[in-house]
Each structure stands twice: as C-alpha cells, then as structure tokens.
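Problem: given the chain below (177 residues), write out its structure.
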Amino acid sequence: MDPTDEDLVRRVRAGELDSFTTLVHRYYPRCLRFGLRMLGERADAEEAVQDAFLRAYRSLDRYEERDRFGSWMFQILANQCRTLGAKRRRRERTFVPYDVVADFSDQPADGFLAAELQRALMQLAPDHREALLLKFVEDHSYEDMAEMTGVGVSALKMRVKRAREQLRTLTRGWYDA
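Solution.
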C-alpha cells in the first residue's frame, strides 16, 4: 500500500529525503501539465514546476497537515506560474513579442486540435485561464481553488464562466464541417 502524502511529509521532516522524491514523482506530471497550459511553453513550465517543488521542500516546516498536500503544492505552483508569466510579459514587452504557439513537438502528429486548444487557452486572461484549468483540467473544487489562489469562490465562478464563454467564442466553428 502506498503511503499517504501526509506520511511522506512526516518522513521528509524526520530526515528521509527520498520520501520527497516520491512526492515529486506523484505530482510532477499533473504539475507539468498545469504549467504547460498556464505558460504555453515547455521550458517555462519546467522552470516553474522545478521552482515550485524547491519552494515546497524548503517550506515543509510551514505545511500544516490539515491542508491537503496536493492543494498546497498547486498553490505554490500557481504562484510560480504567475510570477514567471509576469516576468515573461515584461521581457517580451521590452524585447521581442511572444509567439503564442507553444512547443507541441512531444505531441502526436494528430495533435492539431490540442495545439489549437492551447493557442485558444493562451488568448484568455491569465487569471481566467488559471481558474478554468484548475476547475476542469485539474478537477479542483471551487473551495480548493479559493484556498490555492486566495480569491473568493464567487469570483472564481465568474472567472470560469467568462473563460468558458471566451473559449466558446474562440473555438466556434471547429466542429462545423
């Protein structure tokens, strides 16, 4: 039987550093998927995820067991994505405009719709994209999302609603043949 996240955190705090590796392996794929969809570029997503895990490790003494580790980890990752996204926007404003087409080289050749969906997601406001991804891709409740983002439940519901409306507009006609 696999140890719970809380068991692993207790072990790390007791000096068993390999237990943190287990947490990384458990959460890395979901975190990377979220980072890719938030930032649109693999290198930026990997940087955000690595920084988030490093911050989580350094902050384990502040982790409270009444919280769920996954929600706590996504809160750290969401903050890292916001920070990295803001840095990138400042850099792009100063230098060269960003091409919103993400690197989809690791997707199969029939990944056209996935690429188009990512392109549409990148056109959403970052706070709307974040709310939509947390709700429908990462399958978090509005209460978990509020805890992660520090934004109220009603505001998150409105962000998701607006993101869905904008995404519907951006993807209109995809299935008309």
